[in-house]
């Protein structure tokens, strides 16, 4: 699929397999954009074909150039702040970065100005880009690894949907206490609030569905290095589930781990997903930069 950016416009040349499609079909069926966003684009006349306004219900022809006003200048929504930022992937629609441990993904209030979102705002500012910083998912403060941010509302809406549909695949590395008896397994236990602790979660029959898959990579004395893939994205899910089966994460004192590291030994090492607009498969590998025993 041939695409390019021209100022505030996203240009897409209709591929040969998009025959008799309409603008409405592309937005509703191909990209499954939300109704509110589609309505806004229609009212604002954000879409042209070959440089002219075109009926949304009239069939297009392969080779036509669809022009969409996607890159409107907006504020960052968070104050830019300088800091080291490791970019894993970036284009006009999204950016994936390697979040360091000890940093929040985004501000929780106006007093928070040193989060990952603030660093990304500075990165955009340095590049001369004016777009909102929109996270697609989060990592705990003391978990490091790959995080995706969208650059415009259409990309965010599609990536949000892909996340819900489990098309965004996140692979973690974790070092847990003890030696797991099975080389691979699945933990399917609902997770809810711990009524006795403000920040802790727990396995609870009344909690939300949570499914964690793990695979043993290596045994290390009285610890096990595991690869973890999630079907769901509950808060503290890996930490809760591994603790529940008797193998808390090393360094995770909140869930029974020993303080052998300054933080829990958990890192989002890989993230794969289809590009929100082109469908191209994107693979991002994030290196664990601090020594918490996750590098083999």
Automatic annotation (TrEMBL):
Annotated active site: 140
A GO MF label: RNA binding
EC number from the UniProt entry: 5.4.99.-
Record's keyword terms, sorted: Isomerase
Top-level enzyme category: isomerase
SUPFAM superfamilies per record: Pseudouridine synthase (SSF55120)
Keyword rRNA-binding: no
Membership in a protein family: Belongs to the pseudouridine synthase RluA family.
Functional summary from the UniProt entry: Responsible for synthesis of pseudouridine from uracil.
Name of this protein: Pseudouridine synthase
Organism this protein belongs to: [Bacillus] enclensis
């Amino acid at each position: 699929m041939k695409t390019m950016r021209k100022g505030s416009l996203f240009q897409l040349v209709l591929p040969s397999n998009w025959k008799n499609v309409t603008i409405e079909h592309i937005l509703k069926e191909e990209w499954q954009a939300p109704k509110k966003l589609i309505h806004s684009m229609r009212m604002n006349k954000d879409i042209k074909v070959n440089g002219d306004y075109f009926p949304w219900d009239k069939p297009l022809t392969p080779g036509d150039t669809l022009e969409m006003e996607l890159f409107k200048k907006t504020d960052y929504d968070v104050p830019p702040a300088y800091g080291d930022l490791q970019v894993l992937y970036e284009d006009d629609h999204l950016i994936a970065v390697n979040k360091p441990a000890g940093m929040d993904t985004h501000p929780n209030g106006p007093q928070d100005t040193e989060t990952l979102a603030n660093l990304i705002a500075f990165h955009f500012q340095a590049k001369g880009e004016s777009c909102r910083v929109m996270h697609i998912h989060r990592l705990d403060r003391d978990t490091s690894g790959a995080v995706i941010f969208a650059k415009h509302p259409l990309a965010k809406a599609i990536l949000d949907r892909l996340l819900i549909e489990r098309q965004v695949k996140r692979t973690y590395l974790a070092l847990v206490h003890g030696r797991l008896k099975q080389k691979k397994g699945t933990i399917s236990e609902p997770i809810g609030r711990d009524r006795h602790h403000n920040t802790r979660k727990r396995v609870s029959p009344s909690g939300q569905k949570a499914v964690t898959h793990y695979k043993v990579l290596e045994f290390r004395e009285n610890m096990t290095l595991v690869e973890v893939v999630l079907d769901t994205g509950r808060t503290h899910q890996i930490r809760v589930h591994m603790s529940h089966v008797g193998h808390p994460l090393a360094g995770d004192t909140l869930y029974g781990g020993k303080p052998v590291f300054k933080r829990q030994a958990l890192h989002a090492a890989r993230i794969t997903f289809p590009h929100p607009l082109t469908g191209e498969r994107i693979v991002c590998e994030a290196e664990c930069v601090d020594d918490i025993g996750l590098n083999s």
